[in-house]
Amino acid sequence: MELADILPEESVVFCTDETSKTNVLKMLAATAAAQTGQSADDVFEAIDNREALGSTGLGNGIAIPHGKLPGLRSVSAVFARLTHPIDFDSIDDQPVDLVMMLLAPLGSGADHLKALAMVARILRTEAVVDQLRAADTPARLHDVLTRRIAKAA
Question: Residue 4 forms beta bridges with which residues?
Answer without folding.
Answer: none
